[in-house]
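notes to self, project folder thing:

trying the whole complex as one job this time. last attempt i did each chain seperately and stitching them together was a nightmare. two parts in total, labels are on each line so i dont mix them up again. if this works i'll redo the older ones the same way
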Amino acid sequence: MGYVAVKGGQEAIAESNKRLEYLRIQSGRTLDVADIQASMKPLIDQVMSESSLYDEELAALAVKQAGGSMEEAVFLLRAHRSTLPRLYYTTTTDTKNMAVERRVSSSFKDIPGGQILGTALDFTQRFLDFDLFNEAPSDLCEKRATFEEEPVPESNLDLRQLTKVIDYLEEVGLYQRPAMDNTEPDDITKKSIQFPASRSQRLQSLTRGQTGAVTSLGYAEIRGFGVAVHPNIGELRIGELPLYVQMDQEDNEEDEYYLGAITVTEVEGFIPVDVVNEAGQTTQDFAIGYGFTFGQNETKAIAMSVLDYALEYKDPEYPTANEEFVLLHIDSVESSGFISHLKLPHYVTFQSKLDSMRKMKNKGGDEA
Amino acid sequence: MTTRRNFAFLDENSKKEIRRTILKAIAIPGYQVPFASRELPIARGWGTGGLQVSLSLVGTEDVVKVIDQGSDESVNAVNIKKMITDTTGVTTTVHTDEATLIQSRHRVPEVPLKEGQTLILQVPIPEPLREVEPSEQKTKEMHAHADYSVSWLHLFEQIVKYGQASMHADYPVIVNNRYLMAPSPIPRFDNPKLHQNEGLILLGAGREKKIYAVPPYTNVKSIDFEDYPFERESFVGKACRLTGATDVYLDELKDEETGEAYYLINDQSYMLELLNKQEGVTG
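result (full assembly):
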């Protein structure tokens, strides 16, 4: 034993892994998981959304272990998800009961309850803030104290009972609420997606899609390769949603157990569609595209609502109307995994290809 | 925070579900059974389909062999083997005839399988019709009707264009006279080994979420035409430089001193076994 061609892989891998770990700790500085969780909320939200696992602490741990690589953090958390038994489904939750932190509508200036800007990056000016180079923990405490001393204006608004913009649209007769579909939803993590896909399969696939992929395809749909008109955001709301599980088979609300609340983003996009009335006249109604994500992921949720619309009201001319094209290619773990597998050795298949090409050339030579 | 790891990584319910999928696959040879593929700590596209099959089947008594491109020591083989042993503590081997479970990427070992052995092939693209039809919904219908005319047409077009079949590895086969199947990117050289094989062959595609099977003693035929019969890669006039073997799949290498091409057996554990045998005889 001991031929060079056969041995060596194991040692080389061990050394490569050592080098990776060395580079991680080389500078002598590192972030605590708690630091990441406290100061990188948008990153945590994005990782949880793409991983389909709501756990801020584990998401922060994944970010730390991945050295900040988005695809790697999602990969780690998804793999961890596979080790967890799935015992219960939460009961149906109504987003009307969301404890709203932010709620805006681009369709109506004055919505019942008003526009609630909450927390957003939208109104900041994107100058690099050089003061952050010298931010000390004591500065943070001081700043926090100043904020907390500011008086909070009185309000009678119940943020758990905010009406939805779509209700108004229905009242004025511009939206026909479809019949309630109470079919048991599919679960794409327990049964792989089949085509034609059900709406539940579609929404699950979109909500766990890679943020960049969902955003790009949604952008293409409204820019020109699709509906090519831009939808109106009827309502974008962010807040905490309470979750319950039912322990027995009886549909008795008193037996529900409260699990906790998760922060989510919900988008209802309005897009006009043609409808033909009884008299044969063509008029327009609004159709809804629906977006929903774990955490605050506004761009993705809006793009998701666009794609939900594109797949519901299909125009076969455009790739975004092809559910296999959209749903099978937006998953971060799948796309990054398959692309990166090209780095693996393909010696055997390449040899086979060489054989085929050489035969081809020899035959060509005979005929010439 | 500390966590307890499951035996063979996945939770028991997931493994049970995958075993049920495998049973269905064995019952319908060559048919791609969909399953809810789990994410693993190995990347999608790096053998997660095969690995989920291995993890669902492996028990404490099993002896596991993992090969990638014919090599037990290839980076990915080492990684997958480590993942299996780290989570189960089972014994591993490089010898094909000692293994009960053999996970492989792109090769069927040269040593023939026996009854009781299971070969698990990693599959990147399980759909043999994908090259001609991108839509999953349509290919599913074509399988339902055994409508494979497009595959023969594809083959015919290649013959017209190139004078031969230009498909190299992953050359499609008909299993049990019914389903068209992608044998995974094994070289054409390995296709005939699938026919009436004594071992159980399972094929797992993690990213594409499909499991399929060639049960022991099943008919497997590579598609071809009477006047253009199926051909394996040709190694006529070539032999392994170390062992002299000719009836095996060979790797082409370049001699750094002379600049000439030379050949070695691709299945490296088989090459080692041959070499040891030869040294035993001469020494």
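what i see at first glance: Chain B has a mean pLDDT of 93.
need to look closer tmrw
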